[in-house]
Structure formats: C-alpha cells, structure tokens
Amino acid sequence: MTVSKTFPVEYNIDDQFRATASFPTKIIYLYLSLMAARPKYYFAWTLAEAINNAAGFGFRGYDKNGVPHWDLISNLRILHIEFSTSFKMFLDNWNIQTALWLKRVCYERASFSPTIQTFILSAIWHGVYPGYYLTFLTGVLMTLAARTIRKNIRNYFLDSPAIKLCYDIMTWITTQIAISYTVVPFVLLSIKPSYVFYSSWYFSLHIACILVLMFPMKRTQKGNKEQESIQPSWSKQQEEGKEKRIIGHNSYSVANSFNQRRDITSRNTATKQ
Predict the structure, then answer these.
(1) Catalytic residue check, 95
(2) Which of 41, 138, 146, 247 could bond 87 through an S-S bridge, CB–CB 3.0 to 4.6 Å?
(3) pLDDT digit string (tens) for 197-206?
(4) Does 228 fall in a domain?
(5) Is 155 an annotated catalytic residue?
C-alpha cells in the first residue's frame, strides 16, 4: 500500500506531468505505477490460497521425487508475472482460476473469434465500470497482435543462447509496457481519465496493433522450413507405425494359418488311426 501511494496510477494523467515529462520518463513511471498497483492482488490471492491449502483443497499430489504440491487452486505465479516475456504468459499466470473458467465456458466453446468473445465475457464478469471494457477491448488488440508478431519473428532468435537472451530481454520490456498501457483504464475506471491517458500516448500502441493486424507479416522462410521438416517426420512416423501394425497383423495371420493347418493335420492323423 505504501508503494502504491508513492507511485499512484492517477499521476500518469496529471496535467503538469503530461506537459513536462519526456516520453522515456512517462514509460518508466507507467511501469512503476502499475507494478506498484499489483501487490494488493498478490496479498489477497496468496491469503486465499493459504486458507484453501489449510483446508486441504490445494493438494495436487506428489511428484516423482515424493515432494507434495499444493498449487491445485493457485490463482497467480508472481515471478512468472513480473518476468513474463509475452502477453499470453502474463495472462496465463494472473487470476489463473478465472482464466481457466473462461477457457472452459467460452474460449473452447466459441464457434468464431474465441479470443474476442472471451475478453468481452471477462469484461462483463468484472463489472460495469467503463474502464474494464476499455482494458479488455485493448487486450484483444494486444493479444492478437502479439500472437502475430511472435509467430513470424521468434524463429530468427533461437539460433544461439546470446541472441535468445537479447530476444527475451526485448520481449520482457515490450510486454511490461504493453500490459501497463492496457490496464490503466482498469484502475482509473472511468472513460474520461482513460481517454486522457491514451491521448497523452497518442494511442500509439493501439495504432501499432491495428497496423500489425491490417498488414500481417509473412511467415518467415525459416519458420516454413521448420514446419516442413516437422510434417515429413510426422508423416514418416505415421507410415512406420502403419508398417508395424501391418507387420504385426501379417505375423498374426501367418501364425494363425499355421495353427489351423496343424490342427487339420492332427485331425486327419487321428481319423486315419
């Protein structure tokens, strides 16, 4: 609570701050203010998890080393949240049980646009404040754009650990900025202050996401090659499996035929005797 008072989210829309702060300063303060707003959720969900575990509801079983696990109904993973390198990774580790419920009742059942429908249902589930709807509609753009970018460029950065590390650092920075930018209306609740904030950023991330979705990048040649290499190997495995089944079937047929001939010979011998 002390940290959140030191970096209030509302200061992002302060007139003097918007007029005098440089853009890098705005980025840094945005990240700090939203990071400071999360501990109250961490406290509430961790306390609820402790109560459920005390009642035995959170026991998931033992691993192969005999270590017990008590995360069956955990609602967050703090380190995964703070060090998430993608929008999806953040959402997968935040409010986990609600996300699983939304996945079961909406995402897996939607006949079209499951991502959009799930975000809209999530906004309705949270309440009636306009800021919730601004956040989740922005989240739709962020999720779809991030998915498109990751699918097209990630393959370029997997060749070496050093390049992969640089990629992870860059995606961590962009993810934290995107998350902070997205959830400001969730904290401010109303339309006017949310509009003031987004206009101070010139709706830059909204525009970037729309451009990515309007002009999707072509899939990388490397990604295509990897996909092509996967498909033949999968087909080869299918063929090998089919051959094994055929060989097994033929072996069974030969053995069965041999047994039948042996039985017939035995009966003929017995008849002659």
Answers:
(1) yes
(2) 146
(3) 999 999 999 9
(4) no
(5) no
